[in-house]
Each structure stands twice: as structure tokens, then as C-alpha cells.
Design goal:
CATH class of chain B: Alpha Beta
CATH superfamily of chain B: Mannitol-specific EII, Chain A
Shape of chain A: globular
Largest interface: A-B, 33 and 30 residues
Structural class of chain A: mainly alpha
Number of strands of chain B: 6
Bound molecules: zinc ion
Low-confidence stretches of chain A: none
Mean pLDDT of chain A: 90
Distance between the termini of chain B: 11 Å
CATH class of chain A: Mainly Alpha
CATH architecture of chain B: 3-Layer(aba) Sandwich
CATH topology of chain B: Mannitol-specific EII, Chain A
Oligomer: heterodimer
Number of domains of chain A: 1
Structural class of chain B: alpha/beta
Order of helices and strands of chain B: EHHEEEEEHHH
Radius of gyration of chain B: 14 Å
Strand content of chain B: 15-25%
Helix content of chain A: 40-55%
Chain lengths: 114, 155
């Protein structure tokens, strides 16, 4: 997988973590179990730093998608987009595309072949 | 945890009964390397970064000598738990300031929602509230011992 995709995946992982800490539904559960979530600000600073390392055009695409979907970038594991479950064209699976970042034609999510 | 038994989530190659590391960052690395060695993850870096980020949110060392490093990532394909033990304890910046002797590292795929992973965390954090069980976990030297402890506490 290319470096910039890895950064994008790491950014998404971080966004998921931030969301879990921010949303009352999940943060209450963590707190009930005894976890402290005091470092949210620290985490957001780390997020900003990570985002800076991603090429602007790609980052903007991610941010736009992340505004719509909880998962903006997804691995391709079967023949369907894991976001919208629409079948992907066979051209996706030719080796020529294996190192490219792909786009689901139906929902626009970013897809990569792991 | 749906109908799946707690004990069935554990695998022998995802257990470290005697951690070599003595520092927080190296303990995380040692555990992540074991995940890689067992084939659970392809890339150590993603998971390690994610776990370190989680620790910056607040130590997952909840006290009583137990820590629960955890997180969700698309770098993991199914709910995974790794057990690790450090007989003499390591400094994991735990909330009670005491050394950490037992680790349950929990990873879940991010595309599947948080329910299963929260349920597993909840089950394990409750389990260690039982003093007898906790004592046995401190002393679990092999997979059979761990299975007995976990199996004996499953409904
Ligand atoms: Zn799609």
C-alpha cells in the first residue's frame, strides 16, 4: 500500500477514536468501565499533525467524504464496496490497479486493495 | 458478546506469558509484534500508532495491575484479543500508579461498528473486578491455565 494511503487510513483510525471519545453514547460506556478520556485535546493536536502530512487534494477528498460517511476509506475485501454494498467493476481487480487508490462509482468512497 | 464464549476468542499464539519489555512503549511494541507474528495484522505501524494515540487519550491501565489497550482499525479484519503477562509488573502509567501485570489488548475492525468490542471490553473489565480471578490471572503461566480461568467465568 502506498505511503499516502497508509496515512489516510491512520487518519481515519484516529477520527474513529476521537468520535468514540466525543459521542456520549460511546464515551459513557468507556467511562462506566473506568477509562479516562481526558486527553481529547492532545489527540486532536495529533490529528492535525497527521493530516498535514497528507497531500492537500487527497486530504480534502477524505475530509469531504468523512463529512458524509463514518468510513471514508475502505479496503476491498470482496467484490462489493463495503460502504454501499454495490458490486465493483471487474476492472478493479486487475493488477494494474492494485497500487492505486480507487473510487466507488456508486458512493464515491475511497477504496484500496490491501 | 452475542453467544460466542469469551474463552473462544483467545488463541495460544496470541498470548505472551512472560513479557520481556519493561517500559510502556516497548510493551506495546512487543504485543504488536506478536500480532504480526501470528498473522493477525500485516503492518505493525498502524496498530502501534493507534494504540499509542489511545494511550494519549488516557492510560488504559485501569489499575489493579491490569491494562486494556484497545482500538478499532481497518488494519484488523476481526475482533482480536491478545493476552500478556508480566509477573513482576511494568510501569504502564496506570490510573492507580501501581505496576501492571496483566494486559488484554483488544482490536476490532472499524467498519463493523463498536458494539462487539465494547461488549468484550465490558466483559473483561468486569472479570478483573473479581479478586479471585484477578489473582489467578496474575499467576497464569500457560494457555491451559488461562483457558481454565476464562472458561470458569463464562456464563
Ligand atoms: Zn460504495
Amino acid at each position: 500500500m502506498r505511503e499516502e494511503f497508509k496515512l489516510l487510513v491512520a487518519l481515519q483510525d484516529l477520527d474513529i477514536m476521537i468520535r468514540e471519545a466525543e459521542e456520549k453514547k460511546t464515551s459513557d460506556k468507556f467511562k462506566d468501565m473506568g477509562f479516562q478520556l481526558d486527553g481529547l485535546e492532545e489527540l486532536q493536536k495529533g490529528r492535525a499533525k497527521l493530516a498535514e502530512k497528507i497531500p492537500v487534494a487527497l486530504r480534502n477528498r477524505y475530509e469531504r467524504l468523512a463529512g458524509h460517511y463514518s468510513m471514508a476509506i475502505l479496503p476491498v475485501t470482496g467484490n462489493k464496496c463495503l460502504g454501499c454494498f454495490v458490486k465493483l467493476p471487474t476492472s478493479f481487480f486487475s493488477s494494474a490497479y492494485s497500487s492505486e487508490l480507487l473510487t466507488c462509482e456508486n458512493c464515491g468512497r475511497l477504496l484500496f486493495i490491501p | 458478546m452475542e453467544s460466542k464464549k469469551l474463552v473462544s476468542l483467545f488463541q495460544e499464539d496470541l498470548c505472551i506469558f512472560s513479557l520481556r519489555s519493561r517500559k510502556k512503549s516497548s510493551v506495546l511494541l512487543e504485543m504488536v509484534r506478536q500480532l504480526k507474528a501470528s498473522g493477525k495484522i500485516a503492518d505493525e505501524r498502524f496498530i502501534l500508532e493507534m494504540l499509542k494515540n489511545r494511550e494519549s487519550l488516557g492510560s488504559t491501565g485501569l489499575g489493579l495491575g491490569v491494562a486494556f489497550p484497545h482500538g478499532r482499525s481497518i488494519a484488523i479484519s476481526d475482533l482480536t484479543v491478545l493476552f500478556a503477562r508480566a509477573a513482576s509488573g511494568v510501569d504502564f502509567e496506570s490510573l492507580d500508579g501501581e505496576p501492571t501485570r496483566v494486559f488484554f489488548l483488544i482490536l476490532a475492525p472499524s467498519e463493523k461498528g463498536a458494539e462487539d468490542y465494547l461488549a468484550l471490553l465490558s466483559q473483561l473489565t468486569s472479570l478483573v473486578q473479581q479478586p479471585e480471578t484477578l489473582k489467578k490471572l496474575y499467576e497464569a503461566k500457560n494457555f491451559e491455565a488461562l483457558q481454565t480461568i476464562l472458561g470458569g467465568n463464562d456464563e
